Amino acid sequence: MNLLPSRAAMERAFQERDASFDGLFVTAVKTTGIFCRPSCSARKPRVENCEYFATVKEAMFSGYRACKRCDPLSANGRPPDWVARLLERVDAVGGERLKAADLADLGVEPARARRWFQKNHGMTFSAFCRARRLGRALGALRAGGTIDEAALGHGYESHSGFREAFSRQFGDAPGRARSSDCITTALIESPLGPVLVGAVDAGICLLEFTDRRMIEAQVEALRRRLGKSLVPGAHPLLNQLEAELVEYFTGTRREFAVPLVAPGTEFQERVWSELRRIPYGQTISYEDLANRADRPGAQRAVGTANGMNRIAIVIPCHRVVNKGGGLGGYGGGVWRKRLLLNLEQGHPPGREPSER
User: Fold this and answer.
1) What percent of the chain shows pLDDT beyond 70?
2) Please, what sign has the CA dihedral across residues 248, 251, 257, 262?
3) Among residues 40, 129, 205, 317, which one is catalytic?
4) In this predicted model, what pLDDT tens digit does every residue of 321-345 receive, in sequence order?
5) Are 95 and 153 in contact (CB under 8 A)?
6) DSSP code, position 205
């Protein structure tokens, strides 16, 4: 799915140095071989010398290097200001629906909101708001509230409308929801860019860089495996994960304590279990991993299982490298793999070195 804004919108944003588009695309300049954030303060090139990419990874794989002035590799995961304003409004209005006119009052184009939320949360802005409302209604029911309180307190005008929306989202009637569980999702900042995280009551089940091409397929696979809906919101395990990630990136944590839920095929789960046995600061080869998973010679198969890992960093698939010493592949980008390995050798994340 192409989530890029229109070329005209990107050209305008880049020429006007519109920081609200940072994170939605990068601009690569053919004549210099450099790519920049939309907000870059450098002198702007001719329009015909520009091409646009949805992610840093795509620009790097196309042979471009990062601009030293705007440093597009130093993503910290913070949403643009307009997204922060929008999220504040969503929280403030509670169960009320935000319409196009409401977004216009905030200076936000509905199409831009749809693209940003699709890219970073795996759902449109409308779906995000709907899931948020239903998630809060579920929380109210699980806290002992009545169906009346859950429905009328979260923007539903009738019981039948609430029941229909609730059953469609969670696959169960509201009256049986007190024992229901969902996948609570959120965005967490990291020195390597924003990550989409998810938790069920039993543990963390998702941690993916938002610019990963496979993220939509990974989210859908997780939804099918667990048979649960994704609902943006807050969860104690997500708070624990965020705290542990901060400690990891500052070099004070070597092992994660947060519980995990990582369903897959029998072979995938065996591989992921072996990944968690690789000590901090060490690496093994794909051949070694195949042997440890009782599949000698199956380097390609374990590489595929690595790529299907939905809990990056905590299940450390970045610690598997080529036998000859090369980094090998990484779903979040080889540059991130190098930075994670450097971190575990005592070097904090910094500017991305050139690709090998």
Assistant:
1) 75
2) positive
3) 317
4) 988 778 888 888 888 888 899 899 8
5) yes
6) E
CATH of the domain at 110: 1.10.10.60
Q: Which domain holds residue 207?
A: 183-249
Please identify, among 178, 196, 213, the residue that sits at the C-terminal boundary of a domain.
Answer: 178
Question: Does residue 201 belong to any structural domain of this protein?
Answer: yes
The backbone region for 281, taken as left when phi is positive above 0, alpha when psi lies in -120 to 50, beta otherwise, is left
Q: Judge whether 36 counts as a catalytic residue.
A: yes
Q: Choosing from 36, 40, 129, 205, which is the catalytic residue?
A: 36
For residue 2, the model assigns a pLDDT of 44
Rounded Cα–Cα distance for residues 291 and 171 (Å)? 41
- Spatial separation of the C-alpha atoms in residues 173 and 179, rounded to whole Å: 11
Would you say residue 313 lies in a domain? yes
Angle separating helix axes 159-170 and 125-142, nearest 10 degrees: 100
Residue 65 CA: distances (Å) to CA of 34, 51, 71, 279: 5, 13, 10, 32
Q: Is 50 known to be catalytic? A: no
Answer whether 0.85 is exceeded by the pTM. Answer: no
Same-domain check for residues 85 and 153: yes
User: Does 227 share its domain with 293?
Assistant: no
CATH for 43: 3.40.10.10
